[in-house]
User: Fold this.
Amino acid sequence: MTLAEPRLKTTPEPEPTGSGGHAAIDPTGEREPVTLDAAGGADPAPTPPESGPDRETADRSDDPGTNVRRWPTRRRDLLVFGAFLLAAFWVTSQIWIDPAGRVASLYSSDPAQVQFFLAHSVRVVLHGEYPFFTDRLNYPDGVNLMANTAILGLGIPMIPVTLLFGPAVSFVVLVTLGLAGTASAWYWVLSRHVVRNPIAAIVGGWFCGFSPALLSHASWHPNIISQFLLPFIVWRVLVLTRTTRPVRDGLILAVLVSYQAFINEEILLFTALACGIFLLAVVAQQPGRWRAAWRPLGTGLLVCALLAVALLAYPLYVQFAGRQAYHGLSDAVRDYGNDLAAFISPGSPTLGGNERANANLAPNYSEENAFFGWGLALLTLGIVIWLRREVLVRALAFTGLFFAILSLGERVSYWNRELFWGPWEWLVKVPLLDAVVPTRFGLITTVVIGVLLAVAVDRAWALETVELRIRRIGVITALAVVLVPLVPLPLKVGPRPPVPDFVTSGHWRQFVGPDQSLVPVPVPAMGHTNGMRWAASTNLDFKIPGGYFLAPRNGNTGDPGRFGGRPSGVSELLDQVSTTGRVLTLTDRERRRSMDELRHWRTAILVLPVRERNAEPLRRTVEQIVGPGRRVDDVWLWDIRTLTAPSS
Assistant:
C-alpha cells in the first residue's frame, strides 16, 4: 500500500484487489475524486512513460478530463525551466547590474557572511584547508563552520565562478539559480508524480519557487531559497511506502539527505518533520494503509539513517561537540514568530506588497515567512473545502495548518499585539528544535499551499460537463486574480562601499604575516561586515578578528549561542564612534584594554578606508590607542607590529 503518487481520476474505478488493497474512501463512504496507488505501486490509471521514443506521443493526453494537446515533454520542460530562469533574473536584475557594488537595501551583513563562506570553499579545495572550522574569521579563537551554515554544498560547485569573477558574483548566481532551481524542481516532481496537467504543475512550481517567503530570503539567504533537493527528498520518502527495493531507495534518500545537510540543515529538519506529519495525517484517515507500508518504509528509513549517519557523523560531531560549538540559538532570534496578521498581508517584495505595512508583522524584512494576502488565504480555504473528500487534500491541509501554528512562536500576536502563549513555548528547548527559528516553519505552509494550488488547477482542468466547466473557469479566474498581487518585483538594493585598493592591489601583503591579523576599522561585527568582504575578495589570504557569525557566549564551547565572538572593548568603542560620529575621549584603562585586545588578535595593521562613514572621528579615536596613522593608497594605516609582537 502506498502513500505516494496521487493520480487524477475523473471516472469511478473498481476497487483495487490483491493483498492489502485499500481504496481511498472518505468517511461518508463516497468515492474520492483521487485515489492513492494500490499495493505494489501499481497506479490504476495508465501513466505515460517517463522517457523513450513513445514519450512524445504519450504526452498527447488521453485523459478524458482534458482536451489540451500537450507539447512534447522535453520541450515543455525546457521552456518551463527557461521561463523560471528568466523570472529569477528579473527578481535579481538590480543586483546583476553591479554585483560587487550593490547589496540588499535594508541589511548587508548576511551577504557579506555568505561571500566569506564562498571564499572558504575555494580554500578547502585549492589549499586543502579544514572544511568545518576556520581561524581566518574571529582570529585567533576561530569559528565553527558546521554550526554556521557554511554552505559547502553550494560553495564548492561555485568555485570556478568565485575564482573567475569573485564571491560577489557567485552570491547573485546562487540567488538566481536558487529561485529558478526550486521552482523547476517542484514543477518536475509535481508533473511526474502528483498532477497530470502541466499547467497545474507550473502553477505549483511557480509558487513554491517565487513565493513571498522565498523572495524575502532571496536578498540575504541563498542557502534557504536553494530548495531544489527538497521535492526529490519528499518524493523518495513517499516512494519508500510502496517500494519493493527498500535498500536501494533508502540509499538514494541517504545521498539526497546528506547533500542537503551541507546546504542547510534547518530546511532539511523542516522537510523531515513535514513528511512525518503528512504521513501521519494520511494513516489517520486510512489506517489500513499502514499494514502494507510500514515494512518498506521502516527498512528504507533504517538504511537511509545508517548511511547518512556514516556520512555525517564526523561533521555533526564537530558541529555539536567541537571547538566553538554552541547549544541553542541566540536570544535575539529564538522568539522570532509570525504575527497572525502576516498570513493575510501581502509580502513586501511583491506587486501588491507594502513594506511599511509589514514593518511590525515580521521579525525583519528577511523573515517574511507567511504574507500570503487575504486573497490567497481565502482561496486556499476554498480549495480545501471544495476538495475536502480527497485524502491528499485533507492531509496537506492538516500539515500546513500544523506548521502555521508552530510558526507563531512563543507568543501569539495579532497586529503586533500579544494575545497569549503559543505552543512553541513548550518546544523551544527540545534538542534540535532549540536551533530552529520558529517563523521559518511558515516555509512548510508555503510549500503546502503551492501543492494545493497545483491540485486545484489539475482538478478544475479535468471537469467535463458544461456546468463543471463553468466552475473550472471560476477556479482559474480566482487563481489569476489572487496570484497577480503576488507577482515578484526586483529585489531592492542600495550601494555599498568598494573594497579598498589597498586590499585589492595586494599592498597589504608587505605588512601582514601568516600568524598575524589585519584589523578593519570598525572591527568586523554584525552591522560592520565590510571587512569580511575585504577578506573574501582575497580568498581569505589574511585573517581578521571579530565578524558576523554564531558562537558560544564568551567564547566558551557549549554555551548558548550569540552573534559574534567574545565581547570586545575596542570593537564596542569603535562601533559607538561609527554610529554617532562623535570622537570619544578614552581613559587610560580603556587604552590599555584596547591594546591588550590588539595583542590578543596578533594585530599587524589597522586599516580605515578614507571613505568610511565618520572616518575622521574613527581616525582620531584610533590614534588615542596606537598613535598617529599614515595615508596609504585609499586607507589610513596603523602599522603596530612592534607594539603587538610577543615579548622575548
